[in-house]
Amino acid sequence: MKKSLKKNKKGFTLVEMIVVIAIIGVLAAMMVPALLGFVDKAHESNKNAVASGLGRGIEAVLFEPKWDGKSDGTYTGIVATKKATFSDNASTNTEFAAELSKIAGEGYENGAKITVVITSGKLDSVVYDEKPASGSSYVPPTTSGKTVGIYTPQ
């Protein structure tokens, strides 16, 4: 009777289980860096989309005649409570800086910095510089510790 029980045993041995677990571990170790690369690309794409959307909104406002000759400068917006508030670095175009604050609207990451450069009444660039939130597991791909989205009109 004991002999027939041993012959009918089905299942995996301990060695087989260890081999399977080791193979799964190796495959997982190879996949993690690839997946992290996709996450970095997604964050970079998001920042570029934010800068592009803001840039296109600014370009639309610059078509208004009331801003002719009154919009040139470098404007810096700092995000607090998810809303960007802009100031003109030269402090001469405070009215247009206030207009930029309206265009930017809400929804940005707190602590982010937005820089807008306008020359001869035309938008030169928008740079959206988002610092990672404290406690965030995301580490930006740049050495400066920031993720930057850039928009320059064609």
Automatic annotation (TrEMBL):
InterPro entries linked: N_methyl_site, Pilin-like
Record field: transmembrane: 12-39
One Pfam entry name: N_methyl
GO CC annotation terms, alphabetical: membrane
Region feature (Disordered): 134-154
Compartment annotation: Membrane
Polar residues bias: start-end ranges: 134-146
Protein name: Type II secretion system protein
Species for this entry: Holtiella tumoricola
